[in-house]
Amino acid sequence: MKAGNFDSLSYVNRLKAAGMEGGLAEVQASVMTEVIQDHFHSLSTKQELQQLSLDLRKELQLQGQELRKEMNLMGQELRKEMNLLGQDLRKDMQLLRLEVQKDMQLLEQRMVIKLGSLMVLAIGVVATVVKLL
How far, in Å, CA of 85 to CA of 97, rounded? Predict the structure, then answer.
């Protein structure tokens, strides 16, 4: 709406026709004209709003592209980190496997020694019982 398009006389006539007093209608029309003229410069045109809309869309599109790039980089970094963690985990598991094997061998040796000792003791007990009988 342009400020020059406000027809204050028509506005006053419409207010009078609606039952408002003439002096009050003229004051209101005068005030309305001042408000429109004072605030007209701050109103945006349709073209300005369309341009703003285009600018915002472009900005959103650029931000979306930047976010996608950042997400791709973060994804690549996470994959690398996960691969490194996987390698570390495999190494740790291999070390644990070797330790368990070593511990099992030691247990097996101890069990053989204890079983041998028990067999010697059993033979000794049998030999003693045979001598006594």
Answer: 18
Report residue 89 as tokens.
């985990």
d(CA 19, CA 8): 17
Instruction: For residue range 6-46, list pLDDT tens digits in order.
Output: 788 898 999 889 998 989 988 998 988 888 887 777 778 88
C-alpha span between 28 and 11 (Å, rounded): 9
Report angle CA 61, 65, 69 to the nearest 5 degrees.
170
Contacts of 11 (CB under 8 A, 6+ apart): 25, 28, 29, 32
Q: What three-state secondary structure class fits 102? A: helix
